[in-house]
Amino acid sequence: MKDGKIQTAVVGVSGYAGMELARLLLHHPRLATTPPVFTGRVEDGRDSVPLVSLFPQLADNHGSPELKMEPFTWQILEERGVDMLFLATPHEQSRSWVPQAIERGLRVVDLSGAWRLAETENRAVYKLTDEDPERAAELQMESVYGLPELHRAKIAKARLVANPGCYATSIILALKPLIASGWVNTERGIICDAKSGVSGAGKAPTAKTHFMHAADNLSAYGIFTHRHLGELLEQLELDSDEVIFTPHLLPIPRGILSTIYVSFWEPKTAAEVNRCYHKFFARSPMVRAFGTQVPQLQYSVRTNYCDIGFQLSPNGRRCVIVSCLDNLLKGAAGQAVQNMNLMYGWNEAEGLL
Amino acid sequence: MKDGKIQTAVVGVSGYAGMELARLLLHHPRLATTPPVFTGRVEDGRDSVPLVSLFPQLADNHGSPELKMEPFTWQILEERGVDMLFLATPHEQSRSWVPQAIERGLRVVDLSGAWRLAETENRAVYKLTDEDPERAAELQMESVYGLPELHRAKIAKARLVANPGCYATSIILALKPLIASGWVNTERGIICDAKSGVSGAGKAPTAKTHFMHAADNLSAYGIFTHRHLGELLEQLELDSDEVIFTPHLLPIPRGILSTIYVSFWEPKTAAEVNRCYHKFFARSPMVRAFGTQVPQLQYSVRTNYCDIGFQLSPNGRRCVIVSCLDNLLKGAAGQAVQNMNLMYGWNEAEGLL
Amino acid sequence: MKDGKIQTAVVGVSGYAGMELARLLLHHPRLATTPPVFTGRVEDGRDSVPLVSLFPQLADNHGSPELKMEPFTWQILEERGVDMLFLATPHEQSRSWVPQAIERGLRVVDLSGAWRLAETENRAVYKLTDEDPERAAELQMESVYGLPELHRAKIAKARLVANPGCYATSIILALKPLIASGWVNTERGIICDAKSGVSGAGKAPTAKTHFMHAADNLSAYGIFTHRHLGELLEQLELDSDEVIFTPHLLPIPRGILSTIYVSFWEPKTAAEVNRCYHKFFARSPMVRAFGTQVPQLQYSVRTNYCDIGFQLSPNGRRCVIVSCLDNLLKGAAGQAVQNMNLMYGWNEAEGLL
Amino acid sequence: MKDGKIQTAVVGVSGYAGMELARLLLHHPRLATTPPVFTGRVEDGRDSVPLVSLFPQLADNHGSPELKMEPFTWQILEERGVDMLFLATPHEQSRSWVPQAIERGLRVVDLSGAWRLAETENRAVYKLTDEDPERAAELQMESVYGLPELHRAKIAKARLVANPGCYATSIILALKPLIASGWVNTERGIICDAKSGVSGAGKAPTAKTHFMHAADNLSAYGIFTHRHLGELLEQLELDSDEVIFTPHLLPIPRGILSTIYVSFWEPKTAAEVNRCYHKFFARSPMVRAFGTQVPQLQYSVRTNYCDIGFQLSPNGRRCVIVSCLDNLLKGAAGQAVQNMNLMYGWNEAEGLL
Question: Within an 8 Å CB–CB cutoff, is residue B48 touching chain D?
Answer without folding.
Answer: no
